[in-house]
Structures are given as structure tokens and as C-alpha cells.
Amino acid sequence: MIQLLDKESIGDELVERIVIRLTDQGYDEVFQVLSKLFPKAKAMRLRSMSEDLSEKRDNRLIEFNNLIEMEPLDLELFNTLSSADQDPQLIFNRGSWDPTKFELKLVCARTPLKEFFDECKSITCENCIVSRLEAFSPWKITLNRVEDRRVDLCNNCGIILSKKDQIFLRNERLTYVCHNCGHKGWNKAK
To answer: pTM for the complete prediction?
Structure first.
């Protein structure tokens, strides 16, 4: 639901969480998130805000507050980004605001056989990747997790856990029952 947000009713903490989460991320990623969060805002304003956040400029919190006061936003996405709909227990156990990072490695299986396939003779490997990436058939894919997984994700479906889920904190484990897929699992709490 897209609406103008009453800033006084939500407080500063939720806005600061979003700014922390988007700070020091890549410019393109921040711009994509902001364009979905503020679908009716002008592109130049969102580009300027994306640049402020990605480069950790001092005025980023003030500018983001101004943007929230003046532009209608997607309330559901705002709640997701600010963790307003999350169980407070999860927020305290989250190690950082950074998403889990993965490294994707694509190895073209056709490169050694370039002389045998007519469609491969006239194109470079990069063009091959761009044109055939959706099919995934000629690729061998290796996915490596670069850093620790976030605490608040279901291990089965990958959805972010929220107040809808049954969450229990026991010792160093966060046990849960996912509302989306019904998976009963646990994550290391810290």
C-alpha cells in the first residue's frame, strides 16, 4: 500500500534502521531498493539519495528523513526494511544488518569445444554468458557462501522470519517454525 507516512507516529528508530541497512551498499542496489520504496519519487532525487547512502555521506540521515516526509512510500516494504514487523528477539540476535553474501561462479562447459559448435564459433564467452544465462543448460554452477548466514532466515525456503513464526531462543540456538513452509529448524543465535 503506497501512502504518505506520518513521521511522528513511527519515530526515528525505524528510519535509522533503514539508513544503517542501506549505508555502504552498492549504488545500483540502493537505487533499486529506493525506487521500490518510493515508487512515485523523481529519479534524480533517488539517485542523489542512493549516492549519499552508498558513499556514507554525513547528510544521509537528514536527507532520508526529508524524503520520507515528502514522498509517498510502499508501507509493506518500509516495514520489511525497518524490521517493524519483526520479533524484537530476532533484531537483538542479528549479528549485523548486512545480508548474507554469496559468490556465484559460472564455468562455461562449451569453451573447450568451441570449434565443434557452430553457434559458439563466432561469439566470445562473455556474449555466450549474456545470451544463454536464463537457460543455465551449458553451465556448471558453484555457489559458495562468503560470510555467515543471517539469523532471521528460514533454512528451507529462505524467507525472513517475523512475528508470524513461532520463535524460541534457547542457549545459543534460535529455534523456529516457519509460517511460510512449515519448516521446523534452528539457526546459531550469534
So the answer is: 0.52
Tell me the three cell numbers of residue 93.
540476535
Within 13 Å, how many C-alpha atoms sit on residue 40's CB side?
10
Contact 6, 68 (CB under 8 A): no
Q: Are 151 and 95 in contact (CB under 8 A)?
A: yes
Three cell numbers written together for 106: 559460472
Report the run of H or E that residue 175 belongs to, with start and end.
strand 173-177
Report the alpha-carbon distance of residue 70 to residue 53 in Å, rounded.
18
The secondary structure of 4-57 as a DSSP string is: ---HHHH-HHHHHHHHHHHTTS-HHHHHHHHHHHSTTS-HHHHHHHHHHHHTT-
**Residue that has been written with the C-alpha cell 553474501 in this structure:** 101
Would you call 95 helix, strand, or coil by DSSP? coil
Report pLDDT digits (tens) over 70-101.
Answer: 899 888 888 888 877 776 666 655 555 566 66
Is the CB of residue 167 less than 8 Å from the CB of residue 189?
no
- H/E segment holding residue 104: strand 102-108
Q: Are 86 and 164 in contact (CB under 8 A)?
A: no
Cell readout for 68 is 520520507
